Amino acid sequence: MRHALSETWSGLRRNFGQTLAIVMTMWVSLSLFGAGLVAAQQVNLLKDEWYDKIEVTVYLCTSKLTGVNCDLGQDATQQQKDQIKAAIDSNPEVQQVWYESKEQAYEQFLEVFKDSSIKDSLSLDEMQDSYRVKLVDPQQYDVLESQIATMRGVQKIQDLHVLLDPIFKWLGALQWGTIGLSILLLLAAALQIGTTIRMATFTRGREIGIMRLVGASNFYIMGPFLLESLIAALIGAVLASGTIVFGVWFIIMRNAQQSLEAFRWVGWTETGISVASMVIVAIVLSIIPTVISARRYLRV
Fold first, then answer.
1. N or C end of the chain: smaller count of CB under 10 Å?
2. Contact criterion met (CB below 8 Å) for 46 and 33
3. What is the pTM of this model?
């Protein structure tokens, strides 16, 4: 062990510039990788939250809003509401339905925007009565729409998937783009590690040959090189972990959570998963290139 530690320290000093380059590359690439994992978990949290909500909202006519099925200047009548409700209940794709009056909608609007100037932008008369519908299969939205879209008293039908899917599509593209870029940088770090180890083993080729002739094991010879690359990778992983932890704390916990309390945000559990994944990737990327690069010099 003393020999391995001594040779590792000597190798780190001798290849300080290349080791520093490995640390910096690992830091940047692992930070991007960790950010991509955090983003992926955040998107999944939002999907679980929003896709679990009501899938379809049937808005009823009001005196302030017009539509092809509305009587000008009149709210939907009670008879129209009853007919719409009966049609929704009879649809086999409907799992559950809730009625929300304009008063309830207005109270919810005031509660959500109680600390914002937006709360003064709408009045009670501008709110709409609605039926909020959860479908057995959200993909069968067209079945419900075709049944009630032309009924008197229906101002419009809104499917949340139409609004949410493009958002999550772009968020998904962003997170996978981040992960893809980080993978390219991680491969660059692995190549740097392999190049550094090849240069180190080449300069010590005669010494390695002598150790093999006197019966030294492969692990004894390779140990210092493994430790050298592992230390560089772990330093990069520690720096990247600190970057991710600080980013989650500052950007999400200190700012986003305070400003947008209605959303579910990633916490320390999701951050811990990302950090653990980063450390594992760093260890794997430090060992594999070292073993591949040094193996050819373990033969006499």
1. N
2. no
3. 0.61
Structure token pair of residue 280 = 């594992």
pLDDT digits (tens, 9 = 90+) for 50-104: 766 667 889 999 888 778 898 888 888 999 999 999 999 999 989 889 899 888 8
Q: Which CATH class is domain 53-162?
A: alpha beta
Q: What are the boundaries of each domain within the chain?
A: 2-50+165-298, 53-162
- Give the per-residue SS3 of the chain: CHHHHHHHHHHHHHCHHHHHHHHHHHHHHHHHHHHHHHHHHHHHHHHHHHHCCCCEEEEECCCCCCCCCCCCCCCCCHHHHHHHHHHHHHCCCEEEEEEECHHHHHHHHHHHCCCCHHHHCCCHHHCCCEEEEEECCHHHHHHHHHHHCCCCCEEEEEEHHHHHHHHHHHHHHHHHHHHHHHHHHHHHHHHHHHHHHHHHHHHCHHHHHHHHHCCCCHHHHHHHHHHHHHHHHHHHHHHHHHHHHHHHHHHHHHHHHHHCCCCCCCCHHHHHHHHHHHHHHHHHHHHHHHHHHHHHHHCC
pLDDT digits (tens, 9 = 90+) for 216-244: 555 556 667 777 778 888 898 999 999 99
